[in-house]
Protein 1
Amino acid sequence: MFAFLHDSKILWGVFQVLNYCVSRASTPLLLTVTIALLAARLLSALREIRKLPPGPWGPPVVGYLPFLGIRHKKFLELAHNYGALFSARLGNQLTVVLSDYKLIREAFRREEFTGRPNTPLMHTLDGLGIINSDGRLWKNQRRFLHEKLRDFGMTYMGNGKRIMETRIKSEVYDLIQNIRYTNGLAIDPNPVLALSVSNVICGITMSLRFSHGDARFERLNYLIEEGMRLFGEVHYGEYVPLYNYLPGKAQAKEKVARNREEMFAFYQTLIDEHRQTLDVNNARDLIDTYLIEMAKAETEGRSQDLFEGRDHELQLKQILGDLFSAGMETIKSSLLWMIVFMLRNPAVKRRVQEEIDAVVGRNRLPNMEDMARLPYTETTILETLRMSSIVPLATTHSPTKDVELNGFKIPAGAQVVPLINWVHMDPNLWEEPKSFNPSRFIDENGKIKRPEYFMPFGVGRRMCLGDILARMEMFMFFSCLMHQYDVELNEGDPMPSLEGIVGATIAPKAFRVRFVPRSSPLPVAPVTPPDHSQLRYVGSH
Ligand code: HEM
């Protein structure tokens, strides 16, 4: 912005003139020079602003922040007014919103867009983990996690796929059994789904499995929920640092720190337990994998370089937290939306069940092999992801240097967000986008098509790391539930709304549903994961 001052010759000239004015005590001259300098500064600032994407203005200091309301909804309105690429100053942060899918793809495949913004929240998280890290730490961790999670079954191929399927199956069967105890009475499906979905991710990462009423599970969930709420409370401080000094906000920040401490203490206990029983030739889960990597680095004398020299255990704890929060809430919300859409679209529900009955039959439950033969079931899941856009703004990317996009300048450090909910509901891309129609994902040959503007997992270099696991889990839970139960509304209960609530994801508002057993429900015996899955039950089991 003040590029003209960077030129040392100009700076020297300005200094000489000021020196002359002061030494001669020439007030009118001093005034003229000051005004000229200010005008030059203003002009330069205006020139810079004109290079930015267009967007709404707001008062100094706070910018457009007070008019924002629910971010992803306000951004829809602004995209209507300002187009596919707009910017808004929110406090001291410049936010750039992309709503054209080609632009989103173009930007997010570029290395420069893999940065994360420098905000107080990022300082709290210390740039650790996978979601909030960037630079070399992020790159190395992403590669490491990809490789190791594949070993634990996050793959569509080979034995790994079967390991993961067995792990998921054991949770699906438990869920089906637990639902059976409800005897077709209306329940809030949220807690039962939360338990089953948590057990999948906690099994992979920590060999941890919770049972109903487990106090630790309730505490863990409480802490995650509280963490979200507290971050919400200090959210404005992300944009206006002075906000953090308002009465009550300091306490909220302290609570954030205490919340994190307790979560980390929980993970620390598990890490210590793992360390005591570690077998370097046999990784039972992700904690073991990290411990083995740390031990290896020590033997090879490269401990200081591991994880870019950051505290190894702190990094591991943040990774555990990241994977739990990314892998639990997303799947649970998606499954809840599937139930909502089935309640609202009984014809789709019947067609899904008919397809499953015809392909799988009534004598066994669906499995991963069936996925390719159940296109309508699979596209019902895709259509749910499209219409619910549970992560409407994905994650915030931040260019690591000034970049040009579509003829506009995006300065280094800006907050760049894709407007996925716009892309998923754009009438120029989707026919009748507001109607729930799984067939839109099926081509004329009966094969599933995924248009490039379908992006529930984001796109590019920071795209979701868990998409394979997510797709496996959603298919197994949804198809087995539909095979075993009819989902029905309790008489007198209102139809669940499509209006979601904004939290870590956009989730349906609380609702109740009856799971009515379909004809010939199968006796579901618990599935014991095979030996090679190395799943261990620790803690309260
Ligand atoms: C329906 C389920 C899911 C949806 C819709 C979803 C969606 C997303 C989206 C939109 C992003 C951000 C992409 C971007 O900003 O460009 C993301 C990132 C991420 N997701 Fe998922 N996700 C799901 C499930 C999972 C699961 C099960 C895991 C666990 C392994 C996971 C792990 C992650 C991680 C670690 C990142 C951050 C990647 C990075 O920063 O490099 N997600 N996800």
Note: The chain has 17 helices and ten strands.
Protein 2
Amino acid sequence: MDSKFAWAKINRSPSAIIKSTFMTTMTSPLNSSSTNSQQSSSEKNILGWEGFTLTLPAYWTLASFAGDRDKGNFRITDEDGTRVEVVWETPKGTPNLERSIENLSKAWEKEAKKKKQDFHLANNPPIVSKTRQKKEQLINFGWKGDNKDPMAAHGWGVGWHCAECGRVVVAHLVGRGRETSGTAQRLASEIFSSMECHNHGGWNTWSVFGFQVDIPENFAMKLGKLQTGKIEMEWENPRPADWWMTPKWWGRRPERLGVQRLSAANLVLIDQDMKTWAKRMVPRCNKKYLFTFDEHNSTDDQLWFTGKTWNLRQRLSETAWRFVLRRQHQEIRATVWRDEKDNKLLFAFFDLTSQNEHVQDDVLNSIATHTLV
Ligand SMILES: [Zn+2]
């Protein structure tokens, strides 16, 4: 049934959405405490992804994602399957949102007809009001299918064009057969009315499976690996396209930073202390860097490492340019600590220019391992 909502029709070339320059892999997020269906249904969790933030029932989780800030999509599931899909693009000119939504609806209608299923489009359902989301263009949509379909009996959504981030966003909630259309509409309205599509203040909140971190908006995600027991994310501040024209970029590597969260710290540290474990695991935990334990700056609660890039040629070139341009060394630092309360081990690394040194503390201070609201 997922193909019915695969959005393929709104994007003329669906493969382009998947085409991303970074690795996006994902397995079932079993590490997440939020998959526990015994949780109170009133508990909410924040999903933060590519500049979006959504407040969702705590047991709904990110199930797949693709693309980047300009163009991409993600899918959220509850214990049964797909619940919410969000897809976005950054058009060059003024988009015709009404036409896009119409085409999308027609594609669904055609698909339902082919399968001889009931399908009716709802006329302008009240999902998100223009006073709640002040967008350039905003269109609500909805459909009703077979009300006995347990997984997808109806659907409610909104599309908008945001003047601030320049994105066209289409968000869609799938209603279950056991839900009345009113209930699903209210849920869609609650989620999409408070959904943000861009940050305020230059930092994006990334929040997934109860792990949250703020990252400067000019850093783009390069690695997102959300696996059982381990979350790993990395971002890069890309060099400008014409970097070779600008001496300040010569012989300089792009800034990069990353975080990892490991579950079940008590099991990892069952027969070794954190220092022993970290000294063994951290040095080679990243393909790009080699880390060395920094005894001097480490404490019992927080361990520090210094790093250098694996790439010897790059290292030599950087040293040469540093000498010629009297430039400061771009430090690489990494740190490990334990969150006793949530039973997690955390790792973060920073490869930043001296002008952006403050980013390290800002990022570390923003990290939260418990985002239930
Ligand atoms: Zn926006």
Note: The helical segments are 14-18, 97-114, 181-193, 265-268, 274-281, 312-325, 358-366.
